[in-house]
Amino acid sequence: xxxxxITLERRGKVALLTINRPDKLNAxxxxxxxxxxxxxxxxxxxxxxxxxxxxxxxxxxxxxGADISEFEDKTPITQRNSFTExxxxxxxxxxxxxxxxxxxxxxxxxxxxLAMACDIRMASENAKFSQPEINLGIMCGGGGTQxxxxxxxxGRAMEMALTGNxxxxxxxxxxxxxxxxxxxxxxxxxxxxxxxxxxxxxxxxLQLSKEAVKFASRSNLDEGLRRExxxxxxxxxxxxxxxxxxxxxxxxxxxxxxx
Length: 259
Ligand code: COA
Fold this sequence. Notes:
The chain is an alpha/beta fold. 46% of the residues lie in helices and 16% in strands. Coenzyme A (COA) is lined by residues 24-25, 27, 64-69, 106, 108-110, 132-133, 136.
């Protein structure tokens, strides 16, 4: 499928989904949401793709938030309907393969919410993070009030949501908002390295691990532990479990097939 606001590139087992509106700092328009969901649908069905990286085009921004120019005409109902189960945030959250955010500049509002819906966040030293919605007289609406406190704790999330102030990449790493920070010219190489490493693992075990880890902040400990036991048991039904165990015993590298 041809897209206008995003580009899709496959590099071996890794797909690179780039939000491509550099003149608008990759702001999330409705079209980006629609095309992003369609691209993820395409990648979901593509067995050759094991890991997805999401980034923004240009050197200035990852995503500078929701497209503010669309806010003027939005009614409460059209706004509410745009955050359904099929929103880009939810599509990333429930995507059955690992998704890595490669944050290469401004990561604001819906951009930060999109990054938080991803499984791992890698940032360049010049990345800047904020939830600036409060400055527009509104509040976080794409998961910011829920995912941010789970990642950084209530006090830090509250400060970001109530002030709209930007934090730099080093602070974001200290907060636990991003996993790693690299000089801008190394970000892509390091992110690809991580993605390729994960892409060699067993796809079903990756999917179930993602589901189990995400469940941790959405359940109590007993429910989470029970869910983990069930998901762990499912791994024992896969060919990849046989392959992983045999490869270890035979002292060779496993070749996982996603079955
Ligand atoms: N929605 C729509 N357009 C946006 C945008 C957004 N969230 N963020 C940036 N843009 C557009 C600007 O309007 C400008 O377009 P123009 O050249 O047609 O006027 C272009 O992107 C470049 O942005 P500009 O503001 O000129 O760059 P800057 O370097 O001076 O400032 C920011 C960068 C990120 C500080 C500033 O763009 C900004 O504050 N953006 C809004 C962030 C925000 O509030 N996001 C949350 C939305 S809920």
